[in-house]
Amino acid sequence: MTALITGASSGMGRDMARYLSSKGYDLILVARREDRLKELEADLQGVNVKIIPLDLSKAENCFMLYDMVKDDEVEFLINNAGFGAYGRFSDVPLEKELELIDVNIKALHILTKLFIKDMIKRNNGYILNVGSAAGFLAGPTFSSYYASKNYVVRLTEAIHEEMRRDKINVKVSALCPGPVNTEFNKVADVNFAVGGLPSEYVAKLAIDKTLKGKMIITPGKLMKLAKFGEHFLSEKRLTRMSYDMQMKRKS
To answer: Which of 34, 111, 157, 225 is deepest in the core (most CB within 10 A)?
Structure first.
């Protein structure tokens, strides 16, 4: 069994690698920071580990990654690479937003497309796309990030249903947590208004639920309650509430 994890050098990607290694998966770990990947590789015992330092914001690197590992018969793909950009839409640098789209959407789309074709041929496989509770809402002052996670959630739901209708044994899931204690805050330059869940807990839950074929994985009672409550509010009201929530972040 082989799993490929993008964004594997820290946070949930790192914790997913540790958990999958404990389940006997060989690992292909992808991230930009080679030093972090080497540190993680040294911690993982009893399984084969391949590290690939790569910047997935470049589409050609996504295709190159697939070509490098396609013979390894990846059974479990985890699209975890991604980041946020906080600020009003008119203020956030366009270059940063385009990079966000390249990583959060384009890389995930390319890798999902390439690897799922092989999984369909084998009639076996798992894809976990790391989204966010942000994928259920609009996000004033965090607009590009929220929009990118909406793409992840809806794409995953559509593919999941296609696999189910065609009776193909490929499970496609989206992880949609609220705040998680990772380096996300530092990269996005924000602080969450509520405490985050432990990364290790979310990583384990996400993998376990994906293996069981769950489409949308929402860790934590608070996020489950919030998602349920969305059904009773208008889009206008939800967007206004989202804005108020973003205003509680301190840059």
So the answer is: 111
